[in-house]
Structures are given as structure tokens and as C-alpha cells.
Amino acid sequence: MSLLELRGMRTDIGQYAVLHGIDLAVPEGGTFVLLGRNGAGKTTTLRSIMGLWRPSPGSVHFRGTDISALATADIARRGIAYVPENMGIFGGLTVEENLILATARGRFDGARLKRIQALFPALERFWTKQAWSLSGGQKQMLSVARAIVEPRDLILIDEPTKGLAPAIVAAMAEAFREIAQETTILLVEQNFNFARSLGSNMAVIDDGRVVHRGTMADFAADKEAQGRLLGLSA
């Protein structure tokens, strides 16, 4: 059984049909990458999984249970976290306060907090600083840290490397490899080299439909498919 399964998921935003029947199965473990050109429907797919936009018709199944009608908060309580493209942090709160808000009981698990600080040392250095004062890379680290401050079964991450310096991207890749050892990641990413270094399985979305799926190793070796589906130069 797949950890997450999307069945015929169609999502309309206002008068516009964005997703036209997404069928996708995400296995448990590792990193599953969603690729596609700008405007293909990748972000809409993540937001529909989280209940921020409602698929109709179609359904979202998590561990075999239909969660399509659940409120976003209830979806999160089932063990799904979401790191949006805009990071979703609270600029007026400190790093510590941002993380506390993401805990279930308003307090940290000590061992888990130490692991997060090991993954993202900058967060410990700026523990009492307001989030607005962090660099773009540090804000992204905080956003990911919020998603893993509690144990999760699945993390949806949207464009985590956008606008980041190469050194920060490399550090993020190392952190994601660690996270994927205990939590399944569904990653939307435009940086193909970053995605290729992390992904075990992948799918390409184009015009609101899944047009290709398979292993990342096979897709990384297929230059013709990369050019045809993503517009990448061979």
C-alpha cells in the first residue's frame, strides 16, 4: 500500500481548472520528487493534499484512508507537514517561538531539538533573534525545522532552494538526506541537480496532469525525456 495516493484529483481555483485528474502513488520512505515547468500544477497539488484547496472530483488517500474532506489542521494531525514556497514563518517571533508554535504541547522534545540544531546550526546561533532578521537560507532552514519539530510521516516541501546560494543549497541537501531516513518527503523542485541528488522516485506534471513517472535514476539518465518534459538542455 502506498503512503499517499491521489486518485483522479481535479482542482479548480475560481473559474480556472488547474489540475485535470492527478493520479499518483507515493511509496513510504525516501524522497519522491514532483517535477514540471512553471505553472504545471505542482504547488496546487501540494495545497490540495493539505486541504488548502479542495479537489473535486477526486480524492486524497493517506495510509489507505480518504482525507479529502478533512480540515487542514486535521490533516496535519495525521502526521503530514507542509513547507510552503513562501516558507510560512512568523517574522515578528523569534526562532525559538516559531518552533514552539509548531510543537503539539508547547514544549520541545530535548533529543529531537538537539537533532534539529545539529541539522541547522544557524538556528541555534540565532535562537533569540526575530525571524525577519534571518537570511533567506536561514528562514528556509527554520521553515523546514518547524515541519520536523514533531515526528511526521510525510513532509510536503515546495521549492526549498529557490533564491538560495549554492553553499546553502548543498547544506539543505545534506539535511534532507538525514530527514528522509525517518520521514517520507514529497518534494517540488525546479533545481534538477538538487532534485536528482535526493530523489528515489519521481513524476512529471504538465498542464495539470501526470505525464511521466518512474525512478529518478532512470529519468536522470534519459536526456531526451528531460528536454521534452522539462525543457532542460541535453
Overview of this structure, please?
- The protein is α/β, with parallel strands linked by helices and 234 residues long.
- 35% of the residues lie in helices and 25% in strands.
- The protein has a 6-stranded mixed β-sheet with strand order 6-7-8-3-9-10, sandwiched between helices. Strands 2-1-4-5 form a 4-stranded antiparallel β-sheet, covered by helices on one side.
- The protein is globular, with a radius of gyration of 17 Å.
- The chain starts with a strand and ends with a helix.
Shape designation: globular
Using only C-alpha atoms, the radius of gyration works out to 17 Å
Mean pLDDT: 94
Tally of helical runs: 10
Could you give the count of β-strands?
10
> What structural category do the secondary elements indicate?
alpha/beta
Largest sheet data: 6 strands, mixed
End-to-end C-alpha gap: 36 Å
Low-confidence stretches: none
**Series of secondary-structure elements, N-terminal to C-terminal:** EEEHEEHEHHHHEHEHEEHH
Strand content: 25-35%
How much helicity do the residues have? 25-40%
Q: In which order are the strands of the major sheet placed? A: 6-7-8-3-9-10
